[in-house]
Amino acid sequence: MALPFAVLISGRGSNLLALERATRDGRIDGRIAIVVSDRADAAGIPAANALGLATAVLEPDRGLDRAAYGEALSALLEKSGAGLVALAGFMRILDGGFVRRWQGRLLNIHPSLLPAYPGLHTHRRVLEAGERAHGCTVHYVVEELDAGPAIIQARLTVRPGEDEAVLSARVRRLEHIIYPRAVDWCAGGRLEWRDGAAWLDGKPLQAPIVEEDA
Ligand code: GRF
User: Looking at the annotation, which residues are catalytic?
Assistant: First the structure.
C-alpha cells in the first residue's frame, strides 16, 4: 500500500518535484499527502498546486515560538495522514519535540558529503576549500543540525574552474536521484531507524550507501 508522506519546503521545490515524479512513475511506493511551506512565496507551492497536490503554508508568526510552531506543524502533518516526512530545502530549524515525535520517520537531503560541510552555502565553501570530492547526503533528522545517521550519498568530482552555479546544479541533479530512492526504502520498510542508527534490509548501515556520479 502506497505510504502517504509529507514534503516540507521553503523555496524552489525541485526536490519536491523529483519526489512527485518518482511517486508517479513507481520509483516510490508512496504518495504525497501534503506539501507544507514555511514561506508563502515559496515557488514550490504553486508548482505543487499545479500538480494537484494538497498544500499548506505555515508561516512562523510573531508570538509563535519554536515549540508552538512544531506543535502546529505536527498537527497539520498528522491530519494529512502522513507516515513519513521529507524535508526538501525546509529552512526552519525544527524543535526537539517535533524531531522526537517524528524520529525515524523524518528525512532530510543536504548538499554536501556529511559530516563534511553541515550548514549553509556548502557549494561555495567546498570551492573555497579547493575540495575535489563533493555531493549530497540523505540522512535521518536528529536534534543536532545536519548530524543524523547518513543513509545514502551521491558523490562527484569538482571540475577545475567550476563555479558555484554549475556545481550546485550538478549536485542538485544527484539529489533528485538519491532522495526518491531513500524515501522509497523508508516507505517500503526496507529502511528502519533502530536505536539511533539507520538499518537497511535488516542490517545496520555502518556507512551510507554511495553512488558515484557517472
Ligand atoms: C537542496 O540543495 C537541498 O539539498 C537543500 O536545499 C535545497 C533545496 O532545493 N536542503 P529545492 O528547493 O529542492 O530545489
Answer: 110
8 A C-beta contact, residue 201 and residue 209: no
Per-residue pLDDT reduced to its tens digit, 166-197: 999 999 999 999 999 999 999 999 999 999 99
Q: 204 is in which domain, residue-wise?
A: 110-139+148-214
65 with 40, same domain: the answer is: yes
Q: Which residues contact 26 (CB under 8 A, 6 or more apart)?
A: none
Q: Give the global pTM.
A: 0.97
Nearest CA owner, ligand 1 atom 14:
14
Q: Both 97 and 115 in a single domain?
A: no
Nearest atom, ligand 1, residue 44 CA: 12
Residue 29, C-alpha cell as written in the block: 511506493
Q: What is the mean pLDDT of the chain?
A: 97
Task: For residue 15, report the distance from its CA to the centre of ligand 1, in Å.
Answer: 6
